[in-house]
# Entry
Amino acid sequence: MASFTDEDRTALTDAFRRLLNDRAGEADVRRVMETPEGYDRDLWRQIAEMGVVGLVVSEDHGGGGGGPVELERIMEEAGAVLLCGPLLSSGVLAASLIQALGNEDAKARLLPGIADGSLIATAALTGDAGEWTPEAIEVSATEDGALTGVASYITHGQNADILLVAAHMADGIGVFEVAADAPGMTITALPAFDHTLRIARIEFAGTPAKALRSDGPCWDAIEAALDMTRIALAGEQAGGARRVLEMTVDYAKARVQFGRSIGSFQAIKHMAADLLLESESATSAARHAARALADGADDVRSSVALAAFACADAFTTVTATSVQMHGGIAFTWAHPAHLYLKRARSDAQLFGTPSFYRERYLQAFGA
Amino acid sequence: MTISDEALHKEVTAWLAANWKPTFRGRAAAGSAGGASPEWLTMVVEARWAVPRWSEQWYGRGLDDHQARIVERAFAAVGAPGSGQDRSNLWANTALAYASPSFKAKIVPALLKGEVGMCLLYSEPGAGSDLAGVRTRVERVDDHYVVNGQKVWTSSAAEADYGMLLARTDWDVPKHKGLSFFFLPMKQPGVEVRPLRQITNESHFNEVFLTDAIASAENLLGPLGGGWGVLQTALAYERSVMGEAARGPRSGAKETGGETNLIDLAREAGRLNDPLIREDIARVTALKMLNRMNTARAKADLAQGTSSPIMSLGKLAMSRILHEEARVRTAILGAGSLLEGPDHPRAEDANFLTLNAYFTSIGGGTDQIQRNIIGERVLGLPKEPEVDRDVPFRQVRGG
Ligand SMILES: Cc1cc2nc3c(=O)[nH]c(=O)nc-3n(C[C@H](O)[C@H](O)[C@H](O)COP(=O)(O)OP(=O)(O)OC[C@H]3O[C@@H](n4cnc5c(N)ncnc54)[C@H](O)[C@@H]3O)c2cc1C
# Structure
């Protein structure tokens, strides 16, 4: 892994922020969320050129060789503007899964394309139950690698060129590579409540697939990829929460009722203070988990679980309270509050719910 | 004239048996007694069941609350709408209390029969919580009034025949003293309605631009300069209605209140054995039940001629119930709540409720304002200092 200095990180984060401010403002989000693909391909190319899409891909395979610490920072910026696109699905989840499997052939074939943004990949890890556990997998593979069953809640499944599908095999769980145009497979775009997100469901009926052999158990590789994804998502949530709080505080200063700024009412001031506690805690949790994962620290399991639920809850709470603090204006489609609220609600369900991670958090302490 | 409970019950059930048909369910004008056709409502009014507490002169029977409830329950038992409007019809109650005799004679029956659509022209871009800060200007010209200004968040404005308008008629007195209240005719050239898209993706509320709109002298409710007092009556009815019922999941304008809903949902989702979900369902179900008990107790107190502090709590309680129910529905569905649209009705319900809960926690006076009112008017805590209370409105800082 390449070592990123603090300066490197700051430089990358600043450049990314500038690009997003330029190209991924609210108007851009609203425009692309209405398109079928749901993201701006041109911006995607620029993000890739900047090294953000391939940030965690190893340098040997055309990536930046970064780790969770850099990734988390980048994702805070992405969350702040509600960036649309397969960054999490392709650059984080799929890339990390391929790397965690340690399959040299797959790495050589797929990672360079993922890193330069020309190949979009994602992972199909759960079924209609929508729980990210081995038991919730509803796809099975035959000896010769034909897939049958259902995978759902696949982030950017409809955008992907390549799908990495978790399936039951005779002796455990395997990961299979399927091209989006493979025969015997129906991809359905699901209507997402969060219009900035794309999710899909796939029915497999004897779909030919390529098994990606791994040195260790495949589920361990999936968990490793999910850990990286959780850190990224936690960063997105923390960044989103902070931005929404900023917007809300600005509004509370500017809006006058009863001859004074609404922020001068203790009801509003106290809500704002509570939200600061939420968003700061989320930021601490996300950054701590990133560092723990990077260092392979003893507390990595509990730290990642904590970040997963603390950041999900913080983003949900901040966005929900923000609507209340704005009053009627935030009940309109034209105001951005609902875009963040909807993203917060979907982020809180993807890759496991807060209560799932609270349970894991306790288990990490042996409870 | 008094009637025994038994005789009353017999009379109302017999009348319903002879007259009610489910085909009478339909759309009355916007904002009126929900889900009934004007044809049915007219029958209810003429048979004097619509407002049993009101006097005979005004389509009522002069019943006390206890007997009026017998009538309402008989209607509810067969699913017939239209009774109990003496509690729930905010427009008719406000008109009855404040309209001029000539206007009252026309408008009250029309309101009870659902023949006229209504909206509330209170909020403005600069005056929401601080309604006494409205800047819509009304001037007397010859024998009528001329209205200029802008209203916002006006639900049902596009379908309305009249809007209950709060506007400023005197700029040289403190803010609460220069207001007047009108039934403004909406279908006229000076009224322009522009729909606003809501976070629910619906467009029930609107911007309303008033440019030399005309109100006749008889459209004034209460005295000139007495608009704040009329508003208090109207707001009390609005909030008490919002505290008792709310629009449930998207699938219809059903009241929330079916305790089994969440249990059924959890059973269907295979989550009924999850102790966390059970705990959540118990909590929400209890909140609903307690709100109903509070309301019932408040009503009983009212009947004995005392005013009830508990009444003020209903809207605040409802807001909490709706937000909590939305959270629990989401928890039950898990990843299923990521979806929307007709193929995913459960998700649609949970997500709609999550958003529409703000209708109750913001609309009709926010939760924060309700808490202030409860603290100050019910508990008698000292009022917040109001910097602009006694200043002539001309000198007040705008929003
Ligand atoms: C769905 C919906 C439908 C509506 N329908 C109508 C309608 O038909 N007709 C109509 O006239 N209006 C309608 N409204 C408007 C509604 O009444 C106002 O939105 C509401 O009163 C709040 O006013 P505001 O939006 O200007 O928010 P503001 O008053 O600007 O409030 C912003 C924030 O400041 C807080 N705040 C303000 N003052 C205080 C205080 N003194 N102490 C503590 N906190 C305070 C509020 O609680 C809120 O959190 C509707 C609103 C919604 C959401």
Observations:
- Residues 251-260 of chain B have pLDDT under 50 and may be disordered.
- Chain B has twelve helices and eight strands.
